[in-house]
Amino acid sequence: MSRWKNRDIIASIARALLFFCLPACVIFLSSCARTPQYPVGTAPLPVQPGYMPRQDIVHIVGPGETLWRISRMYDVNMADITRVNSLPSRPVLKMGQRLTVPRAAPLKPVVPLYPSRKWKYIIIHHSATDEDNALSLFQMHLRRGFDNGLGYDFLIANGTCGKKRGQIEVSPRWLKQMDGAHCKAANMNSRGIGICLVGNFSKESVSEEQMDSLVSLVNILRKYYSVPLKNIMGHGQVPGARTECPGKYFPYNEFFSRLKSAARN
After folding, report:
1. Cβ contact 198:156 at 8 Å
2. What is the model's pTM?
3. Which CATH number applies to 55-104?
4. What architecture is domain 113-264?
5. Phi and psi (nearest 5°) for 168?
6. Distance CA 121, CA 182 (A)
7. Boundaries of every domain in the chain
8. Residues 6 or more apart whose Cβ sits within 8 Å of residue 212
């Protein structure tokens, strides 16, 4: 057999292998693109209008926050944060760590979005506390026996514990696309996105800033995950839930009116 014929045989085998192996490679790559650690998109929420100068600020690292996320929140290069804080080239941040962010822009919460078919509902809660942030609630939930800490997917601050009123914090559960620990009724922990507003709305009203952030956040999530308006509810509205959460003064009429108005626009 001539060497040219051998080459033809080898080439035929290579083409056959490529034909049968290529679909498997495509499936593998497609699967990798859906790993929770790498969101396919991020949705910035609107910031308050008007000129606000950049300034150095101190940021306390919350649960699940990375250098990349903090740099996006304040529109500051990661290298600048690393340099100012004398961090190693690949830092692993710790919850509660204090970081100086040089020339930080006004805070811009960023909502990571992951391809998933599991999220069918959005459940609204209140913390039933006067002051908290993601870090303090993370520690509280650990003490209550929640193995993975903070039970909600998102937290909306009320201006206490170093967070601005209306500031959105993203939970490690959402970043890892884990089941929640916020509503056992109707199996909502595995199919409902849990959003908690800091405050006790059985005693006080929701602030305008918190409501603005809640409406914006819910609209982003419901559009991306195709959640119908009827599947957006307060914790106490979930069938089987025995609670007045998110509080007897939570403004359901205003909330749903604003959601419906945004849906028409």
Report:
1. yes
2. 0.81
3. 3.10.350.10
4. 3-Layer(aba) Sandwich (3.40)
5. -100, 125
6. 13
7. 55-104, 113-264
8. 166
